[in-house]
Design a protein that fits this description.
The complex is a heterodimer of chains A (289) and B (518). Chain A contains 13 helices and no strands. Chain A is mostly helical. Helix content of chain A is 67%, strand content 0%. Chain B is α/β, with parallel strands linked by helices. Chain B has a 5-stranded mixed β-sheet. Chain B has a 4-stranded mixed β-sheet with strand order 8-9-7-10. In chain B, strands 4-5 form a two-stranded antiparallel sheet. Classes of the chains: A mainly alpha (289), B alpha/beta (518). At the A-B interface, helix 3, helix 5, helix 11, helix 12 and helix 13 of A face helix 1, helix 3, helix 11, helix 12 and helix 16 of B. Chain B: It comes from Deinococcus seoulensis. Chain B: Keywords: Cell membrane, Lipoprotein, Membrane, Palmitate, Signal. Chain B: This is Extracellular solute-binding protein. Chain B: InterPro entries: Bact_solute-bd_prot1, SBP.
Chain lengths: 289, 518
C-alpha cells in the first residue's frame, strides 16, 4: 500500500481536529474529575480540582456504603439491568432477524405496525393502566417488559442483519443448517459489534431508569440506585431538620459527589471493555467472493 | 419457555397461593380494615419499614387496621406519581399532598372526600390540629373541607448566624440596625477576620432561595433577604392591611428602599459575588469552609454541617443575631406559614366505609402510644423517655430512621418533642451548642405569620410574574440597572404587562373571603 504524501493542509487539519478533540475531552473530563476530587475531599479542606492524593479521604464512600438502602438499591439495579438486557436482547434479536429477511410474509406490514408505535406514543396514563390491569404493579416485570424492545434499536439491528452477505447464509443452508442454526452459528457471531452496542444502550437505559420505578413500584426496598440516590441527595439538601445521621465524618458535598461516583462507576467500567467492539471490519475476510 | 409464559406464571400462581394461605389461616380475632397510606418519606435516605414492622402489628392487634404504607418520592416525582394514581382511579385511602395546585385539581376531579365527618371521630386530633378556622380555610373549597391541614411543627428555625469569634477578634458588637449591619459586614469582609492574610471572607452570605419548608416564598429575592424587607415593613408578598389599601408589598416605596439597601451591600462587596446564582448547598459549603462572617441558615442545616465547619474552624463560634432594625425601628426575620402536613382521604376510601378506620388511626397517631411509636420508633431501642422528653438513640440510626418514616403525621412541635429532637451539637474540643436553645432563639426573631398566602390562587402566568419580579430586583440589587425613579417606575409599569393587577386583586378577594384580612 503506498503512503499518501501529507500536505501542510493535511497537517493543519489534523492539528485543528486534535485541538477540537482535546477541548471536548477537557470539557467532559474536568467536571468528572472535579466530582471525584470533591468526593474524596476530607472534612476541613476546600474542594479543588488538584487535591493531592495524600489528602484524599474515602469517608464519604464509607458513610454511603454503610447505608443499607444504598447497597440494596445497588443490587436491585444490577438485577434490573442484567435481566432487562437479557430480555431486551432476546426479544430484539428475535424480532430484528425475521424482519431483516426479505422472504418473511407480511414483512412490510409488520414493520409498519412496529414503526407506528415508534411514531405515536399513547402516553403515561394508558401505560399505567395497562401495567396495572396486567397485575404487574410493584413487580420488576413492570420495568422489564415495558419498553423491553426499543424500536430504534430494533431497526438498527435489523439493518445490520440486512447488510450481512446472503452468500454466508446460502453456504450454511447448503451445509444443511436450519434457520435457527444460521442465526445462532452464523449471524450472531458476525453481529457481535451491534449486539454489544445495542446491549450497552439497553444496559444504560435500565441502569439509569428513574421515573418508571417511581411510577410502578411502591415498595421502597425494590427501588433501584438512581431513585435512592436522589432521595439521599434530597435529604442532604433539605432545609428541614437533619437527623444526627447526617452529621458525618465527610462534608455534605463530598457525600453527594461520592453518591454520583458510585452510580456511574459500573457503566464507566463496562464501557471501555465493550468499546473495542464498536469497530467495524469484523466481516473482513469472512466472505470470499 | 417464552417470556410471556414466564410472566404469566406468577400471575396465575400468586392468587392461588394467596387463596390457599387464606383458607389455612386461623380466623382473625376481629375483622380487619385495610387502609393504604402514602406519605412523603420523613427520612428519604433510609429504607421503608418492612412487612414485620412493629407498628403494623400494633395497628392490627389494637385497632383492627391492616395498614399498607408506601413512601412517596420527594418533590415533583411524588406529585407525578399521585397524578398517575389519580388518573387510574388508584389513589391510596389516606395520603399526603404537598402541592396545593394538585390538591385543588383532585378536589375538582372529585377524587378527594369531604373530611368533616371524620373530625368528631378523632376528637383529640381535631382539638389539637384541626380547630383553627383560618387554617381550615386553606383546605376548604366552596364551603366543604377536603383536607386535614396540620399546623406547622417545624418552622422559623432560620436566622442570621454570626461568627462570634470573628466579632471578638475584630472587637465588634453584633449589629442591631441595618446601618450597623453594613459596617460589621464590611469589617468582616475587609479586615481579614480569619487571619490568613488573604481577603477571602464575606460579610454576609445568602442566596436567592424560595424554600417552602415553613417559610413562605415571596416575589423578589426569597427568604435569605426577607429580613431586609422586614426592616422596612414590607416582608412577604402582601401587606395584609384591611380594606381598600390591600396591595402587593412591591407597590410600597419602602420596597424600593429595602432593595436599595441590598444594592448597597452588593456595591460594598460584602456579599459573596456569586450570591445571585449560588444554590443553598453552595452557601453551606461557604460557611462550613469559614468564608462567611454572617450567613442565613437553619438550626438543622447548622447541625448537618457543623462537623465540617468545626474541622475547618476549630475555634469557630456561631450564634444567631436578632434581625437588624430598619430606619423606622421595624424588624423581622421574615414570613412563615402555620401550615404543615396536609392529609387527604380519597373519595374511594370514604365510599368503601374506611372513614372511621382512618380517623381511628390518625387519632392513635396524635398522642400516647401511637405518637411515640410513629414519631420516635421502638421504645427502649430507638428512644427512651427521660422526664417526658423522648431521647433518641444514636446507636441504631438506620433502624430508627426506618421506624420513623411516618413521623410527620404524629409530630406536633410541642416543647418536649423539640427538646428530644434538638439535642447537643458537639465540637471536637468539647464545646457544645444546644440546638434547642438555638431554635428558641430563632423563634424569637419576629416572624410574621402569612399563612393566608397559601390560599392565594396562582396566576395563569405565575412563572412569568415571579421571573419578572425576581429578575428586575436582582438587576437593581446588582447595579445592572440603576435604581432611580425612571427605572423603578418602568419596573412598576411593567407589572401591568404581565397582568399583575388581576393577580393582586384575586389575592385580596381570596384573603378577605377567608378572613385573613378584614
Amino acid at each position: 500500500m503506498t503512503r499518501r504524501l501529507r500536505t501542510p493542509d493535511d497537517r493543519r487539519f489534523d492539528l485543528l481536529v486534535n485541538i477540537f478533540l482535546l477541548t471536548v475531552l477537557a470539557v467532559t473530563l474536568i467536571p468528572l474529575l472535579y466530582v471525584v476530587t470533591v468526593s474524596v475531599t476530607p472534612l476541613g479542606r476546600s474542594a479543588s480540582l488538584l487535591l493531592p492524593a495524600w489528602d484524599w479521604s474515602f469517608n464519604a464512600y464509607a458513610e454511603l456504603l454503610k447505608q443499607p438502602a444504598i447497597l440494596r438499591a445497588g443490587l436491585n439495579s444490577v438485577l434490573i439491568t442484567v435481566s432487562g438486557v437479557l430480555i431486551s436482547m432476546i426479544l430484539t434479536v428475535c424480532t430484528a432477524y425475521p424482519l431483516s429477511r426479505p422472504d418473511l410474509p407480511g414483512r412490510k406490514f409488520l414493520t409498519g405496525v412496529i414503526l407506528f408505535t415508534f411514531l405515536f406514543n399513547a402516553g403515561l396514563i394508558p401505560l399505567y393502566l395497562v401495567v396495572r390491569d396486567l397485575h404487574l404493579l410493584n413487580t420488576y416485570w413492570a420495568l422489564l417488559l415495558h419498553g423491553a424492545v426499543s424500536v430504534y434499536n430494533l431497526f438498527v439491528m435489523k439493518n445490520f442483519f440486512q447488510n450481512l452477505p446472503d452468500s454466508l447464509e446460502e453456504a450454511a443452508k447448503i451445509d444443511g443448517a436450519s434457520e435457527l442454526q444460521v442465526l445462532w452459528h452464523i449471524v450472531l457471531p458476525l453481529s457481535r459489534p451491534i449486539l454489544l452496542t445495542i446491549g450497552l444502550f439497553y444496559a444504560v437505559t435500565q441502569w439509569n431508569s428513574f421515573f418508571e420505578p417511581i411510577l410502578f413500584l411502591s415498595n421502597r426496598d425494590m427501588m433501584p440506585l438512581p431513585v435512592v440516590l436522589r432521595d439521599i441527595l434530597t435529604g442532604l439538601n433539605s432545609a428541614d431538620y437533619v437527623e444526627s445521621a447526617a452529621t458525618t465524618t465527610a462534608p455534605p458535598e463530598g457525600l453527594k459527589m461520592a453518591a454520583v461516583v458510585l452510580t456511574t462507576i459500573p457503566m464507566l467500567l463496562i464501557y471501555p471493555w465493550i468499546q473495542r467492539y464498536f469497530t467495524s471490519g469484523t466481516l473482513s475476510g469472512g466472505v470470499k467472493e | 419457555m417464552n417470556a410471556r409464559t414466564r410472566t404469566a406464571r406468577p400471575l396465575l400462581t400468586r392468587p392461588l397461593l394467596t387463596l390457599t394461605a387464606d383458607l389455612l389461616a386461623a380466623p382473625a380475632a376481629h375483622a380487619q380494615t385495610d387502609v393504604s397510606a402514602a406519605l412523603f418519606a420523613a427520612n428519604p435516605e433510609a429504607s421503608a419499614p418492612g412487612a414485620n414492622w412493629e407498628t403494623y402489628d400494633l395497628l392490627r392487634s389494637k385497632l383492627g387496621i391492616d395498614l399498607k404504607f408506601t413512601m412517596l418520592p420527594a418533590g415533583a416525582d411524588g406529585d407525578n406519581k399521585l397524578g398517575s394514581l389519580a388518573a387510574a382511579n388508584d389513589l391510596p385511602d389516606v395520603f399526603e399532598i404537598r402541592n396545593r395546585s394538585l390538591f385543588y385539581k383532585l378536589v375538582e376531579q372529585g377524587q378527594l372526600a369531604p373530611v368533616s365527618s371524620l373530625l368528631p371521630l378523632m376528637p383529640g386530633r381535631t382539638k389539637d390540629r384541626y380547630s383553627d378556622r383560618k387554617r381550615n380555610a386553606l383546605v376548604t373549597v366552596d364551603g366543604t373541607m377536603y383536607g386535614l391541614q396540620d399546623p406547622v411543627t417545624l418552622s422559623r428555625q432560620y436566622g442570621i448566624m454570626v461568627r462570634q469569634d470573628w466579632l471578638d477578634k475584630l472587637n465588634l458588637k453584633a449589629p442591631t440596625t441595618l446601618d450597623e449591619f453594613l459596617v460589621v459586614a464590611k469589617a468582616l469582609t475587609e479586615r481579614d477576620p480569619d487571619g490568613n492574610g488573604r481577603k477571602d471572607t464575606y460579610g454576609y452570605c445568602g442566596v436567592i432561595d424560595f424554600d417552602t419548608s415553613g417559610i413562605l416564598p415571596g416575589l423578589g429575592l426569597g427568604n435569605h433577604f426577607q429580613w431586609v424587607y422586614a426592616a422596612y415593613g414590607v416582608s412577604g408578598n402582601w401587606n395584609y392591611r384591611s380594606g381598600t389599601s390591600f396591595a402587593a408589598n412591591l407597590r410600597n416605596p419602602a420596597y424600593r428602599q429595602a432593595t436599595d439597601f441590598i444594592r448597597r451591600m452588593a456595591e460594598a462587596k460584602v456579599l459573596d459575588p456569586d450570591w445571585a446564582t449560588m444554590k443553598r448547598s453552595d452557601l453551606r459549603n461557604r460557611w462550613q469552609q469559614g468564608k462567611c462572617g454572617m450567613f442565613f441558615e437553619s438550626v438543622g442545616g447548622l447541625n448537618a454541617g457543623f462537623a465540617n465547619f468545626d474541622a475547618n474552624n476549630p475555634k469557630g463560634e456561631l450564634r444567631f443575631i436578632t434581625p437588624p432594625k430598619g430606619p423606622r425601628g421595624q424588624k423581622g426575620m421574615g414570613t412563615y406559614a402555620n401550615a404543615g402536613t396536609l392529609l387527604v382521604v380519597s373519595s374511594k376510601a370514604l365510599k368503601a366505609g374506611k372513614g372511621p378506620a382512618i380517623a381511628k388511626f390518625l387519632e392513635w397517631a396524635n398522642s400516647g402510644e401511637g405518637y411515640y411509636q410513629l414519631g420516635f420508633g421502638k421504645k427502649g431501642v430507638d428512644y427512651t423517655l427521660k422526664a417526658g422528653i423522648p431521647t433518641v438513640s444514636t446507636t441504631n440510626v438506620n433502624a430508627r430512621m426506618t421506624n420513623t418514616q411516618m413521623r410527620w403525621i404524629a409530630l406536633n412541635g410541642k416543647t418536649n418533642e423539640l427538646k428530644g429532637r434538638y439535642g447537643l451539637i458537639k465540637a471536637k474540643d468539647g464545646r457544645t451548642l444546644n440546638a434547642y436553645t438555638l431554635l428558641m432563639d430563632a423563634h424569637k426573631n419576629g416572624w410574621i405569620d402569612r399563612t393566608g398566602d397559601m390560599l392565594v390562587p396562582a396566576a395563569p402566568n405565575q412563572a412569568d410574574i415571579e421571573r419578572y419580579v425576581s429578575e428586575s430586583i436582582v438587576q437593581f440589587a446588582l447595579g445592572q440597572r440603576p435604581l432611580n425613579d425612571a427605572n423603578w417606575t418602568a419596573f412598576q409599569n411593567g407589572l401591568k404587562g404581565i397582568n399583575f393587577d388581576a393577580y393582586e386583586r384575586e389575592a385580596g378577594l381570596t384573603l378577605k373571603k377567608a378572613g385573613f384580612i378584614k
